[in-house]
Write a structure and sequence with these properties.
With 288 residues, this protein is an alpha+beta fold. It contains six helices and 14 strands. A hairpin with a 2-residue loop joins strand 3 and strand 4. The longest helix has 38 residues.
């Protein structure tokens, strides 16, 4: 429905018309003028009569004529058509602005919500694609009516009995139902009002339940485990009075790079060879 209603007037063509003329005027709209005191309009040499009993436009105004329904021609003033076009443009602009604001709001909400999920490993948002979402009659993004946004792990995760590998979804594992993986695209993205991609809000109930242990958590606030305390005391004997320096942190990262230690959920775990390397480091470290 147009934002502004256009007042149009019905015209009748002669019973017999030139088919070439009809083919010419049957496309688009054409200019005409309402003659003073006349009950008709001349369109490309053919007289079109106003329908008896109907209203007629003011004399002398510019008109646009087009073919309407039921084989009747219709006409309207150029002024009313221009006003309707301007109203449609304004309505379209307003609708586009509202659409962009809605997308920007969705991005802000998603970023604020996902920021609370402080998992100890890198992660993204992904989906379990379905074959129907890749058919010719779909959007081709692998989504279905029941598709939800999952936490897609990019690194291995070990937390007590929860063990996941890189590429798993938090709620499932490779041994479970990570999805059929009909397509190579697993990560999910949405777009804001400017067309820039962002990570959509996680909506999988199972993922959110498992991620609840990390909601709002930070590594500084988590309690230290026995292995971490041991490592900290090895690299920094004055701990907890003194925090590890940058050199000690580099040692831990070096051990991690050599697969002699790894960090998970803010805790350091170390192998026997890593403990030997730490002991050697402790003996070589200068004493105050």
């Amino acid at each position: 429905m147009n934002p502004v209603e256009i007042e149009s007037f019905e015209l009748m063509a002669p019973h017999v018309v030139d088919p070439f003329w009809l083919a010419k005027v049957g496309r688009g709209s054409h200019a005409a003028v309402a003659e003073p005191g006349a009950d008709h309009v001349v369109l490309l040499g053919v007289r079109l009569q106003f329908r008896p009993g109907s209203t007629v436009p003011p004399a002398g105004v510019d008109l646009r004529v087009w073919v309407g329904a039921n084989r009747y021609f219709r006409c309207a003033t150029v002024t009313s058509l221009d006003a309707a076009a301007a109203a449609r443009k304004t309505a379209h602009t307003q609708a586009e602005l509202e659409r962009r604001n809605k997308l920007d709001q969705a991005r802000a909400e998603a970023e604020a919500f996902n920021a609370r999920l402080r998992l100890p490993v890198r992660w993204d948002v992904g989906i379990k694609d379905v074959l129907s979402g890749l058919s010719a009659s779909s959007w081709g993004d692998g989504r279905g009516k029941k598709t939800v946004e999952h936490i897609y792990l990019k690194e291995p995760l070990r937390e007590a009995r929860l063990v996941r590998q890189a590429g798993d979804l938090l709620c499932t594992s490779a041994a479970g139902s990570n999805g059929k993986r009909w397509s190579v695209q697993i990560s999910s993205s949405a777009f804001d009002g400017e067309g820039k991609p962002f990570r959509p809000k996680v909506t999988c109930v199972a993922c959110l339940k498992l991620a609840g242990r990390w909601v709002g958590a930070s590594r500084q606030q988590r309690p230290l485990g026995t292995a971490q305390i041991y490592v900290l005391r090895m690299v920094c004997p004055e701990w907890p009075t003194k925090q590890p320096d940058s050199r000690s942190e580099r040692v831990l990262k070096t051990l991690e790079a050599r697969s002699l230690a790894y960090e998970s959920s803010g805790r350091w775990y170390i192998s026997p060879k890593g403990r030997q390397a730490l002991a050697a480091h402790d003996e070589a470290a200068p004493r105050a």
